[in-house]
Amino acid sequence: MASRLAALISKPQRWRVCRLAGTVRYRSTKQSVATGGSSQSDCTEDGLFTEEHLQLRSSLNKLIEKEINPYVDEWEEAKSFPAHEVFKKLGNAGFLGINKPTEYGGLGLDFSYNMAMAEELGNVNCGGVPMGIGVQTDLATPSLARFGSEELKRQFLEPAIKGDVVACLGVSEAGGGSDVANIKTTAVKKGGDYVINGSKMWITNGMQADWICLLVNTGQGPAHQNKSLICVPMDTKGVVRARKINKIGMWSSDTAELFFEDVRVPQKYLIGEEGMGFTYQMLQFQEERMLAIAATLLPLQKCIRETAKYTSERKAFGQPILNNQSVHFRLAELETEIELLRSLHYRCIAMFVQGHDVTKFASMGKLKAGRLAREVTDSCLQFWGGMGFTSEALISRFYRDFRLLSIGGGADEVMLSIICKYMNILPKMPIKKK
Known about the structure:
The protein is an alpha+beta fold. The protein has helices at 2-6, 51-68, 72-78, 83-92, 111-120, 128-139, 142-147, 150-162, 277-313, 325-353, 359-384, 394-401, 412-422, and strands spanning 15-20, 23-28, 167-170, 186-190, 193-204, 211-217, 227-233, 239-244, 255-266, 270-271, 315-316, 319-320.
C-alpha cells in the first residue's frame, strides 16, 4: 500500500481557482497527456480533491474498516487504544508522513493530502483514535520537520513517520491551556544539557508516547520570545507520567498529566532556534485547527444520516418521527451548515497550500466547527429520545467526543479574539505601569 501511495509523489500538484457552473472551485493544473490541455476531470465534485486524493482516501478507508473500526468499542471500554500497534500499521502504509520529506520516509506531498487523510479519518467510529493519530502527524512533528536539525530528524522524525514510535505534544499546563504565553515549565542550560522542570496537563498520547515535543521557557525575556521547543525522550530520568486523566469523552485516547523533575537532555535536542518556540508553535496551531475541522465533517454528517434513518423507522403518534416538519427541516438546516463549513475549510486548505497566512480563516473554521459539532450532536440526540441517552447509540459517543472541539486546540473564546484581532476591533490591553 505504501508503494501505491508513494506513486503519488511523481504527480506534483499546483493549485488554481477555476469557476465551474458559476461557483468558485479549486483544482489541480495537472495537464492532460492525451490533449496537452487542462483536464476538466481533475476537478472532483468537492472542488478541491483530485483523483489522487480520492485514491489515498480509499486506501485509508480500507485500513480503517479492517484494522480500526472492528475494535473501537473494545478500545472505548478500555479507555485507550494500542497506539504503537495502530501507528505501525499506518506507518507501514505510508499514512504518518504524507506531507513530510521523502528523505525521512515521508511521501513529500502537499498539505492538501494531509487534510484528505484527516477528513477520511472521520469514518472512524469515535473521536479519540483520529485525535491520537492527528497528534502524531500534525501536532508533534511539523516544527521538527521544518526547523529541526538533520540529526534530530533522524532520531525523532523518521521513526515517527515509520510508526516505530508514538509522539505527543506538551504545551498545555494546569495554569495555562489556551494561554500559551503563560506556561511555567523551564529549561535551563547546564553544561551541554538543558535541565527541565515543570509540568504538562491534558497531553494526548501521553501515557504511551516515546517522546514529547515540549514547549518550555528558556529565557527571562518577553513571553513571546523566551520559549523553545525541545524533543524529550519519555524514558529520560525525571519524566513522570503522573496519572491518566478520566474524561467525559474521547475515551479511547489516553490523556496524561506529566511532571518533569530535573530532566536532563542534550542541548542538541532543541528544535530550530532558541527563543523561537512560541512562533513555531503558532505555526503548528494552524495545522492543528485545520485538522480539527477536517476530522469533524464526516462524523457530523454521519450523525445526520443515522438520525434520519432512525427517525424514519421509529414511530410516534402513528407516523415516523421523520415525518414531522420540525425534524426533517432541522436535519436539512444542519446539513446546510456542514456544507458551508466544508466550503470555508477547503478555501482555507487551498490558501495554505499556496503559502498564504490562514490564521483568520483557520480560526473561523475551528470556531464554527466546535459550535456546529455541539449543535448537530445535541439536535440529533434529541430526536433519538431515550435511546440517544444510552451508550448503545453512536450519537451519544459523538455527543461526548466532539464537545472537546470548542475547548482543545484553542477555546472558542481564543478563536474569537484572533478573529477580532484580524478585524482590527480587538481592544488593546492597557500597559502595566512598573
